[in-house]
Specification:
alpha/beta; Rossmann fold; eleven-stranded mixed sheet; three-stranded mixed sheet; 16 helices; 31% helix; 15% strand; globular; Type-B_Carboxylest/Lipase; hydrolase
């Protein structure tokens, strides 16, 4: 998922000017005053970029597993020309960079060159994906989105894995430290983004995969009230109510949210494994453990509820319509399941496919096998089932539920030739895989001419939605809201953008029958 750009370093000057005093060249476009001090970024031909700006104190020592704390003001002008450290994470099979740093609560701001406090632009705050265990804000180059969309883009690091979503009976806020970080970044935006040329009254929170999962959490969080005004969720949905009371269960049967008690029980097990067995001193003991020891433990990397950020189960909040009723743009790729099945079921045999269907679906297994024959590629068949059931069928129910309370615009990204974010093991064909739309918004993998045109259209839709709460723009195919029954197709080539026949492409009537709907 690495979509980094390398930037040269600017020269830091006036390093010993008092923090409250303006530097001699404060009128320069690359110098901006925040509420904790001046920062100097870089000015490119069509945008400005400020990297590695701290939005909360380093959560080390006694601040490990504490709510984010204020940044100490600095003297002089701080160089904002390099990203901050990635939050602590191990590497993975694709070789994404590992990190042992807890000093990681930084954000990056990319601004159209013409944006000023007198001409503020809409703000888009990006929460990266990575299963809440991997990734960083600076993996995403926001320059194209900023310049073509004429928006200010903020990308955020937040605590991950055992540092961001940990719990223990001796801790307050169990299961939500990463979410608290994200809200601290949103509060930083409210206090500071106007100085960069952004409009704090027009903030869109958007993310992909685990980042979109986080967006859903903030939609359900009372402490996020007023921090954002629109939401975009890519490759996730906010509720699994489709499966409630049905005869079906998802292939990848994982909870979206877990109670604080589950985090606390998991944390107590982790403490015991690390030799912190005395309940009275366990938290102090755990705070003394090196990062490497904690990263070696299996995290419960799911947002927890029963804390200040999520006092109630978000599933209940969404079902009762008690979420923040901001306009929502949401969608999936056509083949979401290919990435996950390649990882979970590599080398799946025909026998294993049939046995797996019986285990998951019971009496419905034969009908599903007939609808999704393996044709010698059982892993690909499971991917199709997962794409249709776990994502499209469940996502449709979530979209409809949300649309009863607020405007919702849904899309299906259908470019089956899109470059995948990762090569898939096991010979699985990626098609329009999970995350494959990212290169159309953030420069990364090379795109064809038609794909780049699609990317331009997507950026226009996304940025128009950020500006107005409605993605429609002059010259683009009309995108109607979910309440009209419309889902928008995003694919390259003539006629590629228009109506996405979700029901036919994902066999939704078949799944409705099996579910008893």
């Amino acid at each position: 998922m690495t979509l980094m750009r390398t930037l040269g370093s600017a020269v830091l000057s006036l390093a010993f000017v008092m923090a409250g005093a303006a530097p001699a060249n404060a009128a320069s476009r690359d110098v901006v005053r925040t509420d904790t001090g001046w920062v100097r970024g870089e000015v490119a031909r069509d945008h400005r970029i400020f990297q590695g700006i701290p939005y909360a104190a380093s959560p080390v020592g006694d601040l490990r597993w504490q709510s984010p704390q204020p940044v100490t003001a600095w003297r002089g002008v701080r160089a904002a020309t390099r990203p901050g450290d990635r939050c602590a994470q191990s590497t993975d099979l694709w070789g994404l960079p590992a990190s042992d740093s807890e000093d990681c609560l930084y954000l990056n701001v990319t601004v159209p060159r013409s944006a000023t406090p007198r001409r503020p632009r809409p703000v888009m705050v990006w929460l990266h994906g990575g299963s809440l265990t991997k990734g960083a804000g600076n993996d995403y180059d926001a320059s194209r989105l900023t310049t073509r969309g004429d928006v200010v883009v903020v990308t955020v690091n937040y605590r991950l894995g055992v540092f961001g979503f940990f719990g223990h009976p001796g801790l307050a806020g169990s299961g939500a430290y990463g979410l608290e970080d994200q809200q601290a970044a949103l509060r930083w935006v409210q206090r500071n983004i106007a100085a960069f040329g952004g409009d704090p009254r027009n903030v869109t929170l958007f993310g992909e995969s685990a980042g979109a999962h986080s967006v859903c959490a903030h939609l359900a969080s009372p402490t996020a009230a007023g921090l954002f005004h629109r939401a975009i969720t890519q490759s996730t949905f906010c509720s699994q109510t489709a499966f409630t009371g049905s005869r079906l269960r998802p292939v990848m049967d994982l909870p979206m949210w877990v109670p604080k008690a589950a985090h606390e029980a998991h944390g107590a097990t982790t403490a015991t494994a690390l030799g912190c067995t005395d309940p009275k001193t366990a938290v102090t003991c755990l705070r003394g453990k090196p990062v490497s020891k904690l990263l070696a433990q299996e995290p419960l990397a799911l947002p927890g509820y029963g804390n200040a950020v999520l006092p109630a189960d978000p599933a209940t909040v969404f079902a009762q319509g008690r979420f923040h009723r901001v306009p929502i743009l949401t969608g999936i790729t056509r083949d979401e399941g290919t990435l996950f099945t390649a990882l979970i079921f590599p080398g799946l045999t025909e026998q294993g496919y049939q046995e797996g269907l019986r285990h998951i679906f019971g009496d419905n297994a034969a009908a599903i096998a007939a609808k999704y024959p393996s044709r010698g590629r059982p892993t690909q068949a499971v991917a199709a089932i997962m794409s249709d059931l776990d994502w499209a069928w469940a996502g449709r129910a979530s979209d409809r539920m949300l649309s009863e309370h607020t405007p919702v615009y849904s899309y299906g990204f259908a470019d089956r030739t899109a470059p995948p974010i990762f090569p898939l093991p096991g010979g699985v064909e990626p098609l329009a895989s999970h995350g494959s739309e990212l290169s159309f918004l953030f420069p990364g993998a090379p795109l064809t001419r038609e794909q780049r045109k699609l990317g331009d259209m997507m950026i226009t839709y996304w940025s128009r939605f950020a500006a107005t709460g409605d993605p429609n723009a002059p010259g683009l195919p009309r995108w109607s809201p979910v309440r009209t029954g419309h889902v928008h197709r995003l694919a390259p080539g003539p006629g590629g953008v228009g109506v996405y026949d979700q029901d036919a492409l994902h066999e939704l009537a078949f799944w409705d029958r099996l579910a008893g709907h």
